[in-house]
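Feature request, filed as a ticket because there's no other form

It would be nice if the structure record came with a short human-readable summary line next to the tokens. Right now we just get the raw output. Example of a typical job, pasted below so the devs can see what we mean:
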Amino acid sequence: MSAAYLSGKVFLLITGASQGIGRQIAQSFAPLLGNDSLVLLIARNARGLQETADKLPRGLSVHTASVDLSTATAHELKDVINKVLGAAGAMQFEKAIVVHNAASIGDLTKSTVAMTDFNIWQEYYDLNVFSPAVLNGVFMEIFNDCSKVLRLVINISSYSAVQPYKFMGYYCSGKAAREMFFKVFAVENPNVNVLNYSPGPVDTDMLHAVHTYTSEAQDEDTKNLVKNRPVLTTEQTVIRLLEVLKLQKYKSGSHIDYYNN
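Raw output as currently delivered:
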């Protein structure tokens, strides 16, 4: 598959890269990068990150950073990125890509009227909304003065950002807020390519958690999230993501689902 948008010397940052979709994005994107590209993989699980790194092409410059994104400050995130950029800095690259993939499902046992603990709300939004927003700002600040660097921002969204499901108040509201943030970012930054990609129901630990809960709760509405659309492999959905990026038929900031034409 031709992937001109990944050609040349690229800086690629992926969060949640220790497993699932994040790992597959790393595996599928890395072989398409040009010579002297650099990949930075971020997640909490250091062992999982190394396993991902070991799957990437030899000769590619791959760095891992075990970071708890829910607590990392903007200063800490900036240090992580600048450390791997080295003395040559951001100006050495032709393209800069950040994939905001890290996310959590939230407590599936709580209805919206039971979601009354401020601390739980704070913890959930720290990781799922505030962290990608802050990291995105740091990323753009680092590459802001590089007028010749093409910038691509991919937010891994969800159908749940636009479709409500019972007992998924944390997840649905978080995905909706996160996606709207990147829509606003796209309007404010017309020179940056922004994609909100909804990967469909993918065979990951997160989907298994939803399936397990809905099977026990016998909630038909939420069960439809799992049963009405075929479960995809991580490879299937990332291949589709690559196709979307290749065709470039979306308006920057748009929500594109795996099943969109």
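Something like this underneath would help us a lot:
Residues 105 and 206 are 6 Å apart (CA to CA).
Helices lie at 20-29, 46-54, 74-85, 118-143, 169-188, 205-217, 220-227, 234-247.
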